[in-house]
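Journal club prep, notes for RB
We'll compare a predicted complex against what the paper describes. Inputs for the ME8 case:
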Amino acid sequence: MTKTRSITTPIYYVNAHPHIGHVYTSTVCDVYARFERFLGRDVFFLTGTDEHGQKVETSALEQGIEPRELADRNSAVFREVLDLFSISNDDFIRTTDAHHEEQVQSFVQQLIDRDAIYLGEFEGWYDKGQEEYYTETKARELEFKSPISGQDLIRATEQNYYFRLSSFQDRIEQLYRDEPGFVRPEARRNEMLGRLKEGLNDVPISRTNFTWGIPVPGNEEHVIYVWIDALFNYVTALGLASDKETGEDRSRFWPADYHIVGKEILWFHSVIWPAILMALDLPLPRCVYAHSFWISEGQKMSKSLGNFIDLESLQGYCSTYGQDALRWYLVTQGPLGSTDADFSRQHFHDVYTTDLVNTIGNCTSRVSAMIGKYFEGLVPADPDPSFDGWADAVSVLVESSIASMEDFDLVGSCNQAMAIIRRVDGYINETEPFKLAKDPESMPDVGGILYRCAEALRIASCLLAAAIPERMEALWSAWNLDIEPQRGDLVTRAAWGGLAAGTKVEKVALFPRLEQAASTD
Ligand code: ME8
């Protein structure tokens, strides 16, 4: 049976414009999804937009339009961005989809029926003008006056629906003990463990001060808190609470293998979300992976500093360096670990030149040029396929590249593929086929060397195709290789000896050398 793999991005807020952060998370998920499809897995890659809540309602009001119109317009922008950056998601969920809304109500009803949600009373210091509650300490600090209007804060009570998060303390701690890989990376897991020790409180999950949201079933004055609404997207997209026949049965994709999120929303995903699933008796995702943030030119991104990497600047990089160059930079230099990553123009240029021009590009053009020069562009036969241990060495790297990707170590996976290419470079420098070729008697040796080089490059290109799909397809086309990732045969494709002698290879320039840090504006 084919193994399933499912991966999700956060669903993005429609009240902001897409930027590098959104493109980044979507790109890393895309690389995983593409690789897994090439491995023959049954993949489901989900993304979408988070469209309810007070912020959307307020910005729509400010623009004099209905919230729905704002949501439609901005959700479409996010969807276009996916196309622009060749993101291969299998579905795009919107929290305003009727299919989602109905299921959220059904889940919330189940939680009420199971007494995991109750109607409770909240009392606090209320700022009427700001429609905001303050804690006792904060109110005291403010001398019981609104910091905005200066009016007295009033003692007010409000009814809210609460989720009994506090009753899941032991089970969540147990989860962290039993599944050390549930939250990654390790540093983030430790942060969550630290917060867990402070003790869990019940959380309000409804609001009454605005209407743009999903009504609580049976009490329409309350709308479901946007975070609860949003978290459910991961299961409503699969129809887990749907009573309608919607065509394809997607239940096999739950639990998700990876929820990929930014570090700022990890608490919701690694504590509140598993507690909700526990309350519903649903299986838990295998891993919540929280990456860190992109900063820009050494500083936190901000519009006023002029270092904000928005869509236009990303498109600038794509048109100067090519889309795959941007993907490569995001994936290999991005903040998948526990520290933030700095996006800098110079660093981008240097990585492009070192990895793509000097390594992948140079090596493929060197090998194709020699095959062109000495063998009329036809891949020579290898007189001794086991020579120099190539088959074994490459198969070890292939295995570890695959294992790294399965473990969501994208950088590790790319590094193994790059190690194959560096080995080819080293081999050429060591064996000097261009010198051997001066002696006609050495031509079988030259043929053997070039076969091994081309074969190793072909295999590396298969491993790199998820990260830089467009350029690897260009290589396959120039080398007349019949490789199609959608066939799901990566393991067969990456086996040594797949390159047929006699294959016609054209010279190919995959990554043009560019002037120093060319302007991308
Ligand atoms: O939080 N670097 O949506 P959002 C890297 N709707 N990634 C970044 C980033 C940066 N500087 N800035 C943002 C929401 N991101 C909720 C999620 S999920 C049930 C609901 C990425 O539009 C990162 O993935 O604010 C982060 O978690 C996400 O964008 C936040 O997107």
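Talking point for the session: The radius of gyration is 27 Å.
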